[in-house]
Amino acid sequence: MDVSRRTVLGGALAGIAASAAGLGPAVASAASHPPPGGDDFDWTAFLATADLRWRRMPAAWTEGPFLGNGFLGSGIYAEPGQNAVRFTVQHTEVQDHRPQYGSLFGLARLPIGYFTLEPVGAITGVDWRLDLGNAELTGTITTAAGSLALRAIVHTGQPVLAVEVRPTAGEHGFRWVFHPAEAVSPRADPVWKKASPEGYVANPPATVRTVGDSHVAEQPLLAGGEHVTAWREVTRGGARTLYASVAWSHPERTSTARALRSVRTAAEFGPLTREHRRWWHDYYRRSFVSIPDTRLQSFYWIQLYKLASAARREAPVMATSGPWLENTPWPATWWNLNVQLEYWLIHGSNHLELDAVSRALDQYRAHLSSQLGAPYRSDSAGIPRTTDMTLLNGVSDANSGFPVGVPGQDTPTPEVGDLTWALHNVWLSYRHTLDRRLLRDTLFPLLRKAINYYLHFLAPGPDGKLHLPPTFSPEYGVNAPDCTYDLALVRWGCRTLLDAARELRVADPLVPRWQQVLATLAPYAVDETGYLIGAGVPLAKSHRHYSHLLQVYPLYEITWEQPENRALIEKSLAHWVGFEGALQGYTFTGAASISASMRRGDQAAAYLDQLQNRFIKPNTMYEESGPVIETPLSAVKSMQDMLVQSWGGVVRLFPAVPATWGDISVRDFRTEGAFLLSAAREGGKTRWLKVHSEAGAPCVLRPGIDGALVVTDARGRAKHWRTLPNGDVEVDLAHGEDAFVYRAGDRPDFAVRPVAPNGPSTPWGLPA
User: Where is the signal peptide (predicted)?
Assistant: First the structure.
């Protein structure tokens, strides 16, 4: 984190020092050719290889196309038991406002409703394509009376769902019908067997009425405010276009005018798509990844589409289902794993413009203290397991919403570390950008308060070590003293605070306390199976969560690069995934990333294969009872960990790729240190890499290129560099500079283009 330090290896002194140490040349010989720039391929054709296809009607949200813009979302699938197609209409800001019933009921996200497209004739077939590059659903519905050609988008910058339908003569009479949903927490559905709080009732029904050329469904809320769905249909030539929009307001009731304005001012479908397409084209081009496993490559790009459909910096932090709310017992934002995994992929893919976590924790920081017990509010912070979009939980109990735990008290689930773990995401955003404002204004003050909360409870034991009273390791179900989950977060938090204080030049009075904690904190509990849940609490049953392994991943405190820890990491991973029963999809993304940290690419790929074969749905969605969005997104992070790792101040290129990935191409992969990395692997060997520095931070590379190296700038001139004792390469790279690294005698063209597939691949969706 000490980004002000720069290693300067200038002139003859650097050359003498490097030669004397036997560390290789400090100055490379000049390259004979300047590297070209730009992408040497057709982006439209490349992204089209990842398009989802449907040749039969999807029957559920786990099978159908999905559209979104971080706020408004729509899933498309057959209307159950009817000759119709459902277009759901949901919105991430639409929630209840009754905190007396908790985040899972009184502050829960509320369903809005759906449209049905009802043809004249019986549906006999579909031929659909979700065009990723343009973020648009296209295709036809064939019926006994003719066909309906459709195009649909949720506009990326406007709160509008637009569906253009061109019917043949026999289908001119098709119709759209809106079905308002009951405005009640989905958790109240008897199917989930979750008792509603006493006194909790549904909001009153929506009122549907016509307003001039449009229609509105106005949904009042008992706590004040409302959400309104407006729609109108416009006929132009042979096309009928449905425009729909949702607006929310609280405590005011001002949504009708805004929703109507959105549908009445929307342009014709063609012009409407121009800005939409431009945004999406620019979005994809911020980075590039190509691997020879075409189905997994398609999955990667579908998740980038899903991410930008579900997330915006200014939008609510993704709840468990993103914008596609379906019937679920999880109608809130979950902070003991879901949020963290949802946003990890933004860093490597160079999409920090979607970082809602850092924004929300900053914006609603007052709630992070106000929901603690009164003795701790003045100097501490924490986040409940479940919250609404403003980070509120409301009343706390085991069914309505889970509070911040108090160590040593047997509350239903006394989780303490969820805020500290969420702040690790903020730290990742800082490390990948080196934005000092984020460090100074958000991360440091909030992490200081999060660790302060722990400091109230850490106490010395007879062994002279600081110990933590019993807390709860997420998902395991048993309280444990010296809980591994919390000890790992305390260690990471204290180290990060010390680093941040040095970087910010802050003489914080708590520095000695943080140092003391690091020096005397109790060790992790281990046995012959590996890491325990906590002191005296072994991992004795199937456990889907890797809460007891955070020190290995993602915190990288205990690493494979420490030989003394390898056996412990290996047996901990094997023991954890060896318990079948409770394992779920994100178990396998975590196992893949841990395997990648062990440099075992084939093992990491095998875990991702299990994920795809056992858990991922035809449209790449995922469910545990209800829809949960984090697992497919976190699988992309696992892939990124196989391609590039940048923890501990070292950028590692292709550290854990499987043997079958002989060719790989990446461009502008963002790493810690605010570097953008581009590289190519050919025939199982790294051919070249380019690194661009945005902040002038120390640049240490592990390129994996055999033989003597050449390091040049963008004009082919030699750059100053040295080989470190462990073989890593340190390059003198200032702010805004590039360095190209390749094997001496080679002449790479530095072009970034898709790699050849290993074989054919079936598209995602229902292609047959």
Answer: 1-30
